[in-house]
Amino acid sequence: MEANPNVITPEVVAQGLSFSQYMDQVREAVAQNRTTGLEQSRLLADVTKNNVPIMERTYQTPLLPELVNLVQNLPTSMIWLVLTEGWCGDAAQNVPILASIAEHSPNITFKTILRSEHPEVMDAYLTNGGKSIPKLICLDARTLQPLGSWGPRPQVLQEAILPLKKSDLHILETIRLAQEISDADQGHSLQKELLTFIPAWVQAAQSL
Questions:
Q1: Cα 19 to Cα 52, 55, 58, 95, distances in angstroms
Q2: Which class is domain 5-206?
Q3: Domain of life of the organism in this record (predicted)?
Q4: For residue 81, what are the β-bridge partners?
Q5: Is the model's pLDDT at 1 over the cut of 60?
Q6: What is the DSSP secondary structure assignment for residue 149, as one 8-state letter?
Q7: What pLDDT, on a 0 to 100 scale, did the predictor assign at position 177?
Q8: Which of 83, 111, 86 is nearest to 32 (CA)?
């Protein structure tokens, strides 16, 4: 579901954090036995603590050479605005890879915002009616016009993980199994999808 461009204002973008700032925010929350954002619980604090080493590891994920070449040669400037939270397992697996990809391009500005602090943006980018994160929103850097979105996980992993989330498993077991599936993929499916998504976003920018 695409958002009204007015939902993402210059003020929203200005509030966004770089990936390193976001990591600092997550680590600070962990140091305070909290999670990020407005939703707080012991469970969310615990899974946020567990997510930090996952984020540090996935940030080092090897990138496909063809994807690096694609973003290095983008003909248009983009903002990648990512809805996330420190407690989210899918965000721990995918946001660091997205940040690493963006860092290879002089034409991508990477920003993160928290789902709980920007409900109007989240409500504009629902996944099957749900507030699933992470959600990457690609914006034209000049106009903030949305060019497309991605998330919360690659389609092949969505098909594998969604049944777990609908099962009667304990939440911690669901998280563990979902993490195993994502770990086995090693960011490959995300990168393969972006090889298709990014050219479509470029085309959308060029048609503005």
A1: 13, 11, 13, 8
A2: alpha beta
A3: Bacteria
A4: 111, 137
A5: no
A6: E
A7: 87
A8: 86
- Is pLDDT of 78 > 60? yes
pLDDT tens track for 60-71: 999 999 999 999
Q: Are 12 and 113 in contact (CB under 8 A)?
A: yes
C-alpha 117/C-alpha 144 separation (Å) is: 19
Q: Which pLDDT score is estimated for 167?
A: 82
Number of H helices, E strands in the chain: 9, 4
Residue type, 38: L
- 94 within 8 A of 186, measured Cβ to Cβ: no
Nearest residue to 73 via CA among 110, 111, 109, 104: 104
Which pLDDT score, from 0 to 100, does residue 174 have? 85
- The DSSP annotation for 92-137 comes to HHHHHHHHHHHHT-TTEEEEEEEGGG-HHHHHHT-BTTB--S-EEE
Q: How far apart, in Å, are the Cα atoms of 194 and each of 15, 77, 104, 108?
A: 25, 16, 14, 14
The whole model's pTM is what? Answer: 0.93
